[in-house]
Each structure stands twice: as structure tokens, then as C-alpha cells.
Amino acid sequence: PVDNESITISAHGTPLYTNSRAALQKIWAATSHQIQRIRDNADCADEEYAQIDAQNTAIVPQLTFDPEEDVTAPYINSGARPRVAVLREQGVNGQVEMAAAFDRARFEAVDVHMTDLFSGRISLQDFNVLVACGGFSYGDVLGAGGGWAKSILFNAQLRENFQHFFERTDTLTLGVCNGCQMVSLLKDLIPGAKHWPKFVRNRSEQFEARLSLVAVEESPSAFFADMAGSRFAMAVAHGEGRALFAQSEAAQSEAVRALTSLRYVDQSGAVATSYPLNPNGTPEGITGMTSEDGRATIMMPHPERVFRVSQNSWHPDDWQEDAPSMRLFRNARNWFA
């Protein structure tokens, strides 16, 4: 191993061949690149191929907080565990990890299927937190989270149930991946969410499953309290994660910037605009937003898939048990103090 970009093949101490890592990797990847240009978005394929020349693409975390600090420690002996409805629909598959993360943050996680709400067996009014999980509700055949959202919007009783929950000032809402797509389509029911986008097909024209570097922005989000300025990796797994704002909105507008809680960034912290650092082509790298009062937050990446250090494919040697995204869930518990 060497700490530079040069690769040398030697025999008996005599150099026989020398070339750069980038040049050799481009030769190796050339065939795959051409196939990718035909199969996927050609511009994305070219951008990923060009990334081979970059000498530093490491996903290195930079944190403004200690991930091992348990801000929920004061509630260990209180016996109080706010109730979180871990909401799922047909095709959703992220509910178990989500429940585990909230449970570790001292919540009482309750499995809630949409049929429980349709039938009236369970009411959202019995919960403090609503989290819509990731997956592929209705196979996404009606668009990203569209079928899930319409099952709420076109059912008068259910629509009223959700709207009443959102309007209560003692509740939090989180939407992740497919849940992010779904909750974004309920924005007319959520106070202070009118600037939210909807989510459409990835610019790459493919399902994206990778580890992406994100930066926490300054925002009123209860989930991202005291985390602004931090950069760390989160898992992404979606086919429709590109934020699309209404014509009256703009990703650069002051109103949108104020509610942006998470962006894709490169290793220097600059907004990621090219593929694959920006895996879905979302404008300004926006991948997480919150409501004006910070009680409702939506995000495409999966914090629940990397909240433990052991869930991360790479981590700094000094990380112990809790990865950075665990702080999101603990912040939520702290909000109910």
C-alpha cells in the first residue's frame, strides 16, 4: 500500500510499469461506463466516470456534537415513554429498524398499519409521534408515496384524524424515504409545510442504493436540534427522491432555505450537484425539510438504518455504540422533556 495515486509494478526491484490509479481505473471501468450510458441517464454516467479523477472522495464525518452523549439520560428513571406510531402500509419495509431506533431513544414504539386506522382500531390521537417509514407503498405504481397519501386524503374520517394530529402542538411527525414522499403530499394538512416539494423519479433514472454524505443545516427541526454544521453518512434507497418544487417556489428561495434541514454534500462540505454524490439530482442538494415550527420533518435518507455504529460499513475507530444519526431520535425524546 502507498499513500499516493501512483501504482508501480516491479520485478526484483526494477520498475516495469507505472501509471496513476485514476488512469488504470478508467480503463477498468470503461466498458461499464458505456453500458451505463445506454441503460441510465447518460449525463449521470459521465459524471460518475469523471469522479474517478477525484483524489479525495472519502466520506469522512465531521460532527458538532458527541454521538455518544445520551441527551435522554435524565429520563431513565422517569418511567415516561412518549408513544410513537410506527406507521406502515402494504410494501413498507423499514418499520422494524425505525421502531428499534425510537425504542433506544426511550419511546414506546407501536406498530400501526394503515388498516388499523381505516378500521378505527387505533387512533392517532393516542400518540405523541407519528413516523411514516420507508419502503414501496402500493409498489409506487401511483408515484412516490402517492397511493399511500391518497388513501388518507380521499377518506374524510382519516383525513380529519391526520389533520387533527398535525395541528396538535404537542406532537412530532417524521417521514423517511417512502414515508417522506407520502407525508410531503399531505402538506396541505400540516401547519407551516406549504413550501415543501413533492418527490419524483431520480435523475439517474435508476433506483439508488448507496451511502451518501449529508450535511445538517440550521433549521427549526426538533429532530436536528444542535446538530447544524455536522456532516456524516446516511443510507439512501429510493427510485423517486428528486425534490420538485412548485413553480411559485424555488430551491434557492429564502423560505425554502429556512426550512431545509439536510443536504447532500461533497467531502469538502460544498453542496453536491453532480452524480453520484447527489444520488437523485435534487436541486441544491436538498434531501430533508421541516415545517415552520419544526414539529414535522421529512427526509429521503434512512437514519434508522445507520443509528448503530455496527450498521455502518465504515466508521472512525473512536466511535463506540451510537452513530451520529441516533441523535435525531434522542432529540425527539428531548423535545418532550
Output the keywords:
337 residues, alpha/beta, two-stranded antiparallel ribbon
Measured by DSSP, the beta-strand proportion falls in 15-25%
Unreliable runs:
none
State the share of residues found in helices, binned by percent. 25-40%
Q: What best-fitting shape do the alpha-carbon axes yield?
A: globular
Q: How would you spell out the order of helices and strands? A: EEHHEHEHEHHEHEEEEHEEEH
Q: Largest sheet, order of strands side by side?
A: 4-3-5-6-13-12-11-8-9
Largest sheet: 9 strands, mixed
Average pLDDT number: 95
Output the number of helix runs. Answer: 9
Secondary-structure-derived class: alpha/beta
Number of strands: 13
The Cα radius of gyration reads 22 Å
Separation of the first and last Cα atoms: 51 Å
Question: Secondary structure elements and their pairing?
Answer:
Layout: E1 6-11, E2 14-20, H1 21-39, H2 42-50, E3 83-88, H3 95-104, E4 108-113, H4 114-119, E5 129-132, H5 146-153, H6 156-167, E6 172-176, H7 178-184, E7 198-200, E8 208-216, E9 231-238, E10 242-244, H8 254-259, E11 260-264, E12 286-290, E13 296-299, H9 326-335
Give an account of the 3D structure.
This protein is an alpha/beta fold. The chain has helices spanning 21-39, 42-50, 95-104, 114-119, 146-153, 156-167, 178-184, 254-259, 326-335; strands at 6-11, 14-20, 83-88, 108-113, 129-132, 172-176, 198-200, 208-216, 231-238, 242-244, 260-264, 286-290, 296-299. The strands form three sheets. A nine-stranded mixed beta sheet has the order 4-3-5-6-13-12-11-8-9. Strand 1 and strand 2 (14-20) form a beta hairpin. Helix 1 packs antiparallel against helix 2 (42-50).
